[in-house]
Design goal:
The two termini are about 25 Å apart. This protein folds into four domains: about 220 residues, no CATH class; about 170 residues, Anaerobic Ribonucleotide-triphosphate Reductase Large Chain, CATH 3.20.70; about 35 residues, no CATH class; about 140 residues, no CATH class. The strands form eight sheets. Strands 1, 2, 3, 4, 5, 8, 11, 14, 15 and 19 form a ten-stranded mixed β-sheet that branches. A three-stranded antiparallel β-sheet has the order 21-22-23. Helix 6 packs parallel to helix 7 and helix 10 crosses helix 22. It is of the alpha/beta class and about 775 residues long. It contains 28 helices and 25 strands. Belongs to the ribonucleoside diphosphate reductase class-2 family.
Length: about 775
């Protein structure tokens, strides 16, 4: 089988994702399946049938250790929370760096750190507070590369910590802690105080000095602050901590405690904990789809769950020595967490003729979820019979947990009573953005985001033509029934923006009943969604037993981080219209020059740009270092390449896009954090690109003002040369755009995802 046969000849996007992200140096599809399945023929069959896929780290990394590569199979870790001393704080940073270098994402909780103003016995006399160290952890995340990407980080704090208000406010500054997601651990006593409009005590006792720091706040005011900031900036997320601790297989195990959650919050883990991921494609288990005879294959699902649990345990065993830190190896060996999840739920419901969020869909999800949980627990018990239970397994403690009692049949209980469990944690629902895009299905438990996406192409006449690209499930239905317009789709083709938020939470709630870990999830809401509605959403999520929730409001301020200025431009002007291949435009002396001084990690550099006086197109660039800048030869070479590109007819947007793909420079990042005086960007080429775009925009504004002035005169202005055609790149400034292909991003499962090229922030 070839990858084209696997994904479909027409699925070029899926093939590109597989080739770019998961294929190892030209291996064939069959070789890839052999590598990632580890010789397990049953799981290889499910992969070929597109019924199951391992998580991204396994798909890309499994077996590469045999080639000497230092990689991990785990997507996520939780680092031991730093204790309230400088050594532990920086040890935590070291652990983050090492874990990132192997390809893992991390979660860290800072609730043990002293609040701002606490007395300390050193030269500072009082601490700058727990929040001040978040920039350090964000910096480490920015610096450590992972095969063309950066690490992922989640930072959390307890709602009772005196620094919690500063923590919530932190990311309203779009320049701070840009490499971390943040969440607040919310407890039941706080939520009950919110309901009663009572005061809530923020408190911290510093062990080293015995100092007690307390502050009374109105619970409802603090709750509104969380909701309002999430409404405006899509952060912080809410972690309902009592539900996290109380609804799992270890809730009665006294020696166990959760230390934090992973970057997308679907995996609560102990200190040093790690989890391996895999997802079952539910849409592949529907027989006779789109008909009155459509059925869900429960028996097929149960067998797939059993095989998947076994396969994840094989990967766990194989990957034990590959964890970056000794404490991680020990924690994984002791608790043996795996994370089997789902994708394709929305497609599954559509094939069954059920509308996402409606009562009959919730009932179906309840049945599927119970079947998964019972089958996974039974499979783990059978593995325990063969290979032994996880070392810390106490059978009576496990069997008495509310989660176990609610999710097992009598037959499964007998198995566990006899043999215990091979795994302390079994089910999760992680982001599957890249995987589901590759397969052409919906992600996780999310509804279909949109029935179609608009794409733009430039016609031969230089005008923009927009066309619809239908979501795969919509396209399949329309072809099968000869429908020409999406307006003719049945009512059960609902999308994220058409759902009432309660329906979205109802779906997550019913799945959380059967998931012993957690669910990575985002409720997408329209721009007009109010702060009061956000408070209602959070309260409803708490009442429905969710473990975590966040919202993404269309057009919120977080988009300011994710969009570059170049994506907001409405006009693209290039030099040398009509140039043939290899031709370079000659530059005359009547150019308009502009200059910028840039501050970089090494010092300063000067950027001069020359523009066409009639069109404003970039023609030439000159770069030179200041007295303390970087390599002058590099600057000369870069400026020459920019100039010849511009004079060869390449647009400034394309040039800047290439410069922005240069990655992060450690010295640049360090200076930005410490001295906070660097020019916008993460390295010298990016700073140059931003400066060029800034000068280009300024040039276009000046030309526009000049044209308006000339238009008021009775004599028509005659230009020396024809103005090059302007290719429209209309983009809504209130949308996010993919850094790889420039198409709009969506925010699903707690992660930014591109439906056009498969890029995912969480990959």
């Amino acid at each position: 089988m070839t990858v084209e046969e696997w994904l479909g000849e027409e699925n070029q996007l899926g093939t590109d994702i597989w080739t770019k992200k998961y294929c190892n140096e030209g291996e064939s599809f069959d070789e890839w399946v052999g590598r990632i399945s580890g010789g397990n023929e049953e799981i290889a069959r499910y992969i070929r049938e597109k019924k199951f896929l391992f998580g991204g780290r396994i798909l890309s990394n499994r077996g590469l250790d045999k080639e000497g590569r230092k990689v991990t199979y785990s997507n996520c870790y939780v680092v031991d929370p730093p204790e309230d001393n400088i050594e532990s704080i920086f040890d935590c940073a070291k652990k983050l760096a090492r874990t990132y270098s192997y390809g893992g994402g991390c979660g860290v909780d800072i609730s043990r750190l002293s609040p701002r103003g606490a007395r300390i016995n050193n030269a500072a006399k009082e601490t700058s507070g727990s929040v001040s160290f978040m920039e350090l952890y964000s910096l480490v995340t920015a610096l450590i590369g992972q095969n063309g990407r950066r690490g992922a980080l989640m930072i959390s704090i307890d709602c009772s910590h005196p620094d919690v208000e500063e923590f919530i406010d932190l990311k309203t500054d779009l320049e701070k802690v840009t490499k971390a997601n943040i969440s607040v651990r919310i407890h039941e006593d706080f939520m009950e105080a919110v309901k009663k409009n009572e005061d809530y005590l923020l408190h911290y006792t510093r062990q080293a000095t015995g100092q007690v720091i307390e502050k009374q706040v109105n619970a409802r005011d603090l709750f509104r602050k969380i909701a309002e900031t999430n409404w405006d900036y899509a952060e912080p997320g809410a972690l309902f901590w009592d539900r996290i601790e109380g609804w799992n297989l270890l809730s009665n195990t006294k020696e166990f405690s959760y230390a934090g959650v992973n970057p997308c919050a679907e995996e609560p883990l102990p200190a040093g904990g790690s989890c391996l991921l895999g997802s079952i494609n539910l849409s592949a288990f529907v027989t006779d789809p789109f008909t009155d005879h459509a059925q869900f294959d429960f028996e097929g699902l149960k067998h797939c769950v059993e095989v998947s649990v076994g396969a994840l345990n094989e990967v766990l065993e194989e990957g034990l020595p590959l964890h970056p830190l000794q404490e991680q190896q020990e924690s994984v060996a002791k608790w043996r967490q795996i994370g089997l999840g789902i994708m394709g739920l929305a497609d599954c419901l559509i094939k069954l003729g059920l509308a996402y969020g409606e009562e009959d869909a919730v009932v179906m999800c309840d049945k599927i979820g119970f079947a998964m949980a019972d089958s996974a627990i039974a499979a783990s018990a059978k593995l325990a019979k063969e290979k032994g239970a996880y070392p810390a397994c106490e059978i009576d403690e496990v069997m008495s947990t509310p989660y176990f009692l609610a999710n097992t049949t009598e037959k499964t209980r007998e198995l566990v009573k006899k043999y215990g469990l091979r795994n302390s944690q079994l089910l999760t629902i992680a982001p599957t953005g890249t995987l589901s895009t590759m397969l052409g299905i919906s992600g996780g438990i999310e509804p279909v985001y949109a029935n179609y996406y608009e794409r733009k192409t430039e016609s031969l006449h230089g005008t923009d033509v927009y066309y619809k690209v239908y979501t795969k499930i919509v396209e399949t239905y329309m072809k099968q029934f000869g429908i020409k317009s999406d307006a003719e789709l049945p009512d059960y083709f609902v999308t994220a923006m058409t759902l009432d938020y309660r329906q979205r939470i109802d779906m997550q709630s019913i799945w959380q009943q059967h998931i012993d870990a957690s669910i990575s999830s985002t409720v997408n809401v329209p721009n007009g969604f109010t702060v009061e509605e956000t408070e209602g959403l959070y309260m409803y999520a708490y009442e429905k037993g969710l473990k975590g929730i966040t919202i993404f409001r269309d057009g919120c301020k977080r988009i300011g981080i994710l969009n570059t200025d170049m994506k907001k431009e409405k006009k693209e002007v290039t030099a040398g219209e009509g140039l043939k291949r290899g031709e370079i435009l000659l530059v005359t002396d009547d150019v308009v020059g502009k200059k910028r001084k840039l501050v970089t990690g090494c010092g300063s550099l000067h950027c001069i740009a020359l523009f066409d006086p009639n069109t404003g197109a970039l023609l030439e660039t000159y770069l030179s270092k200041g007295s303390t800048g970087g390599c002058n030869n590099f600057m000369v070479g870069l400026s020459r390449m920019i100039s010849i590109s511009a004079r060869g007819g390449i647009s400034i947007e394309t040039i800047v896009d290439q410069l922005n793909s240069s990655g992060s420079c450690p010295s640049y990042t360090a200076r930005r954090v410490t001295r906070k005086d660097t020019s916008r960007g993460a390295c010298c080429p990016m700073a140059v690109g931003n400066a060029l775009m800034d000068m280009y925009n300024e040039m276009q504004e000046e030309l526009a003002a000049k044209e308006n002035c000339e238009a008021e005169k009775p004599v028509k202005k005659v230009k020396k040369v024809p103005k090059p055609k302007a290719v429209s790149t209309e983009m809504d400034k209130d949308k996010m755009y993919c850094p790889e292909c420039g198409e709009p991003l969506v925010f699903e499962e707690g992660c930014n995802i591109c439906k056009s090229c498969g890029w995912s922030k969480c990959h």
